[in-house]
Amino acid sequence: MLLTDIIIKRIKEEGALSFHNFMEMALYYPHLGYYNRSQSKIGKSGDFYTSSSLTPAFGAMIGKQLEQMWEILGKGNFTIVEYGAGTGTLCADILEYLKNNADMYPQLKYCIIEKGAAMRVIQKSHLSEKVSWYENISDLNGFTGVVLSNELLDNFSVHQVVMEDELMEVFVDHQNEFVEVLKPAKSELKDYFTELNVALPKGFRTEINLEAIDWIKEIASTLHKGYVITIDYGDTSDKLYSESRRNGTLLSFNKHSINDNFYNDIGEQDITSHVNFSALSHWGLKNGLTFCGITNQAGFLLRLGFKNYLQKILMSEPGQNMLSLIKKENFISQKLVFEMGLKIQVLIQSKGVPKTNLAGLTDE
User: Fold this and answer.
1) Please, what is the Cα angle at 218 between 49 and 216, to 5 degrees?
2) What is the pLDDT of residue 49?
3) CATH code of the domain in which 57 resides
4) Residue 313 belongs to domain spanning
5) Predicted pLDDT at 256
6) Strand partners, 254
């Protein structure tokens, strides 16, 4: 049975689904949702690039920032928790970099929390040393270290809302085809904007990521001492709710092309929305996480020495000539720094750590 037919059947039995529930099925339905299918999703043969799929230099720069955090935390046992590790490439690159730190590496533990069953299979096929898998961060029973996510929260299922005379939520119905209907928004969606002191103008359409709030609350309650690094497409409230964003940020990715046809190719294309970093900071602070800083990915990587490290990696590859090296370096830099790097934000929060300038946030 096709996933589209399963969704239609559910609508006929239960009535119109919230967009949140539709998106959850489209992305995560067992065996048929986008992230539970076995097809390649990342890289040239997939639907999109991630930063870690382009070069191991990306993971190395995160590893470099983790080294400093380990030093700040006293150079003891150090746990890295990565949410949504994709193919496991970032994990592998971080560990490969940190192997060079003879003092840190023996004290290192790497934990992956992965929602996608197909991705978990891929990760376990090539990751073993230092790596273990968990269903929930609460299973770790408190730890010292870093919680890391890279392009994760933009795939959390979101509620879509439209401001009319009152805030309305988007539901998905089926009448010979998928159609959207509006219903009065429940109180928790209205409270979201009240908490953030945001007043939407009439006609404004946007997304609310309640799952991201639950996510940051759970991290705050489980992390004993350390940092949270969140890397994702997104922005702060003042930009997300500006006039230029009055139609929201939802997009689908299919074979490296972008569309807004969420009701076509269900289960075969990605659906994303921008992360509200103001919300993560707000609810993080309410739950014990201190705001360290936010920057775009380009600035974060360049401060940590990305360009020199990338050149070093490329020059070490066998069979390189100068022309191919320059072409490859330009392609990776264009993607990571000038394209993705200006759209992706890096938010760092801390718990139980003295205020210290972090290399990825501070211009030397």
Assistant:
1) 50
2) 64
3) 3.40.50.12710
4) 3-154+208-243+251-351
5) 58
6) 257
Question: Is 119 a domain residue?
Answer: yes
Residue 131 lies in a domain: yes
Task: Establish if 75 belongs to a structural domain.
Answer: yes
What is residue 293's predicted lDDT score, i.e. its pLDDT?
97
The pLDDT of residue 362 is 85
Going from the C-alpha of 61 to that of each of 93, 301, 310, the distances in angstroms are 10, 6, 10
- Tell me the DSSP string of 168-218: EEEEEEESSSEEEEEEEPPHHHHHHHHHTT--PPTT-EEEE-HHHHHHHHH
Return the sign of the alpha-carbon dihedral for residues 64, 67, 290, 92. positive
Please state whether the predicted TM-score (pTM) of the whole model is above 0.85.
yes
Q: Report the distance separating Cα 333 and Cα 91, nearest Å.
A: 21
Can you tell me which residue has the tokens 């600035």? 299
d(CA 82, CA 152): 10
pLDDT mean for each 10 residues of the chain (364 residues): 95 97 95 80 56 89 98 97 94 96 97 86 91 93 95 96 98 96 98 97 97 97 97 96 96 80 92 97 98 96 92 78 76 83 95 95 75
Q: What is the DSSP letter of 289?
A: P
Q: Report phi then psi at 330, rounded to 5.
A: -65, -40
- Which residue is it, tokens 């997304």? 207
Is residue 187, in this structure, part of any structural domain at all? no
- pLDDT score for 41: 53
**The residue to which tokens 């003092």 are assigned:** 103
Cα separation, 277 vs 279, in Å, equals 5
Per-residue CA distances from 71 to 104, 170, 306, 356, 362 (Å): 9, 47, 21, 11, 17
Q: What span, in angstroms and rounded, lies between the C-alpha atoms of 267 and 118?
A: 13
The DSSP output letter for 155 is G
Instruction: Please state at what angle helix 306-316 crosses helix 56-72, rounded to 10 degrees.
Output: 130
Cβ(313)–Cβ(258) under 8 Å? no
Please state the domain count of the chain. Answer: 1
- Contact of 240 with 275, CB cutoff 8 Å: no
Type of residue found at 137: I
